[in-house]
Amino acid sequence: MYRTFWLAGVTTVLTLVIAYPVAYHLTYAPRRRQRWLLMLLISPLLVSLVVRGFAWMILLGRVGLLNLTAQRLTGHELVLIGTPTAIVIGLVHVYVPFMALAIAGALQNIPPELIQAARSLGASPWAAFRRAVWPLSLPGGQAGTLLVFVLAVSSYVIPILLGASNVLVMPMLIVQTLLDAFNWPLGSALSMVFFGLTAGVVTVYLRLVARGMRWTRA
């Protein structure tokens, strides 16, 4: 349980850090470039999740590009398959478009005149971003982090492919209990406990974000 929430939390934070600059550039890029950037952003969603998982298995495996490069540069192997790092890499790659689109939707609702007014009043670009753009983009960040966390905590395909059965998370444990051990009462109990804890974490997160947004507006 702890490993599941830890992986989902790390994935959410890394996805937010990567997706925010992407969403910002997508929003304020020239209109002609926006179309190409949007196409590049959503293009991974056209590929099956299983296919992307197998692609990362090849890249991070023993005969993959990462390990071969590490052997040539350092002389040591770097095999990430079967580690939590591989799962985080796969989850971040899968969920960056969801986070970026959520943040971009919030950024597009910010009037450009607001930033121009801040700059005309003497604010630096960083001050205009910190005092105007960042607070108004928080609803998009809240929606994106909530979506990514829920999807990551319940992910099954990426952990089972990149974890190579060495990193056990709750969805894998529930499926094994139900289908492999045929223990339906225990599997149902694990599912309800997992659902309750996830709902509790989401509720606490929403309350903390609401307080943070009120403090930012103040």
List keywords for this structure.
218 residues, mainly alpha
The largest β sheet comes out as: none
| Overall body shape | globular
Structural class: mainly alpha
Q: Whole-number radius of gyration?
A: 20 Å
Strand fraction equals under 5%
Number of helices: 10
Helix share, percent: over 70%
CA-to-CA gap between the ends? Answer: 37 Å
Q: Please identify the oligomeric state.
A: single chain
Number of strands: 0
Query: Roughly what is the average pLDDT, rounded to an integer?
Result: 90
Structure explained in plain terms:
The longest helix is centred in the last third of the chain and has 34 residues. By secondary structure, this protein is mainly α.
Task: Please summarize what this structure is.
By secondary structure, this protein is mainly α.
Question: Secondary-structure map with pairings?
Answer:
Blueprint: H1 2-28, H2 31-42, H3 49-60, H4 65-74, H5 84-108, H6 112-120, H7 125-153, H8 157-162, H9 170-180, H10 184-217
